[in-house]
Q: What sequence folds into this?
């Protein structure tokens, strides 16, 4: 049986040749010298996300160490925001209908002749009031769900992964010619 396959050749290694597994990625992340800014769970997840998106992509650098610094610099710059946005999205997904229907509340206090002078640069309230008015808002279901829909419609992970695009070569076809490999099986007859 003849088996032939085409193997693309590049001038630089692929992502999955730099880091063959999650553990080597995590080891480099914790020891490369750039401060770690996201949790162990997030960096593990990020490895798999990068592998799924860029695993077979050739790196943009001939210097592999510089490539690693680029990757971990992007994580240092944008990782904490990505992690916080994921946390916020999780909380938004967990809201029940009562939570999303709640609106804002405004409280208006009146203090006639208080014993202390109010400061215009302070956010502290006067300890004495004569009267109070409150306004409570409640959203309609359409407004509440539309607002939640808008907040959840942004894919924060795709936006974050796009930050790594410059670490990889961008082209349509391989740089070098294809190599054809053929494995021939001989019959023992």
A:
């Amino acid at each position: 049986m003849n088996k032939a396959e085409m193997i693309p050749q590049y001038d630089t290694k692929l992502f999955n040749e730099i880091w063959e597994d999650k553990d080597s990625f995590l080891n480099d992340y914790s020891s490369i010298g750039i401060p770690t800014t996201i949790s162990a769970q997030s960096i593990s997840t990020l490895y798999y996300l990068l592998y799924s998106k860029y695993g077979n992509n050739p790196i943009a650098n001939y210097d592999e160490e510089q490539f690693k610094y680029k990757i971990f610099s992007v994580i240092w710059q944008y990782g904490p925001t990505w992690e916080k946005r994921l946390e916020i999205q999780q909380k938004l997904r967990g809201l029940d209908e009562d939570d999303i229907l709640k609106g804002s509340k405004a409280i208006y206090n009146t203090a006639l002749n208080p014993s202390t002078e109010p400061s215009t640069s302070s956010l502290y309230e006067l300890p004495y009031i004569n009267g109070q008015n409150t306004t409570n808002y409640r959203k309609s279901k359409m407004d509440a769900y539309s607002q939640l829909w808008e907040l959840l419609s942004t894919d924060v992970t795709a936006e974050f992964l796009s930050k790594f695009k410059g670490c990889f070569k961008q082209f349509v076809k391989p740089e070098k010619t294809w190599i054809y490999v053929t494995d021939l099986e001989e019959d023992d007859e």
Notes: The chain has a mean pLDDT of 84. Residues 64-93 form the longest helix (30 residues).
